[in-house]
Amino acid sequence: MKKLILGAVVAVLLSGCSQVKPEQDLMSAIDFSKADYGTPPPDYKLKIKAWLESNLKDPDSAKVSEPTVLRKEVAFENKQPIFGYTTCMGVNAKNSYGGYTGIKGYWFFFHHGEIVRAQQTDVYPGMMIFRGHNVTCS
Predict the structure, then answer these.
(1) What average pLDDT score do residues 56-69 get?
(2) β-strands 80-92, 133-134: how paired?
């Protein structure tokens, strides 16, 4: 009887599993002919500086590299594609103990001139913007 109940439970649990769509489906579902990237944010360096000031423990001591050239990019928000610009840069900041942590990569996504996503790229190698679409910082 125990085996029968265990078998039924396993069957129910497995029946709830669904096939995940291939990663390419998200990219192929985007209608790039209607993409509105807007204009590149002219003040993106100031916005990055403000973000760093509000997110680093000791922003005044941070040593930052020049951001990469802005590039057009797509992401998803509320299951809808959003278009904008991304840039990457290196940041060497102090930790809580006052020591520099070493250069860490950061990625910023701008939508309508505002940072809507920012991520340290060294935390997750091969960081994804969405399934099947990785961050590119080159």
Answers:
(1) 94
(2) unpaired
